[in-house]
Predict the structure.
Amino acid sequence: MFDTVFGLPTHPLIVHAVVVFVPLTALAAIALTVVPRWRTRFGVLATLAALASIGSVFVAQESGELLEDWVLSTDDAPFELVLAHTALGEDLLPWVLVLSIALLGLIGLAFWVNRRGADRPSWANPAGWGLGAISVAGAVLSLIYVIRIGHSGSEAVWSDLPG
């Protein structure tokens, strides 16, 4: 299911979704933490980005494992580079889940508090800042991993070029 799309390997196609949606979700988490009034205004868009991040990272990991098996079965594969890329790639989903779940909690809390109006509980603001802090931490770690994974993947693909 995750190995090819129209005869092309799925992994190099789906990683483009990862490098778009994960940073977009990370930026949304930072923005919605810093500017609380945006939580209800842009919450639906941030939710869609978070769900797309989770889905694209999952498919990238699954398709990457299938591609890894195929690449490592060839004689001239850059084994160490491919294995390094795979090892890094396995660490992204937990951080994207931290980012996304905290962001969804932050957005859900904002909508819930907004519906309550003046009857907001005293714990709502500290909870919002706590969820925001967790989502920002997840955002920073997710961005770091996306950059490291992308770099190691490009090294594995382009390592045989001269120069």
In short: The chain is about 80% helix and 0% strand. Strands lie at 4-5, 8-9.
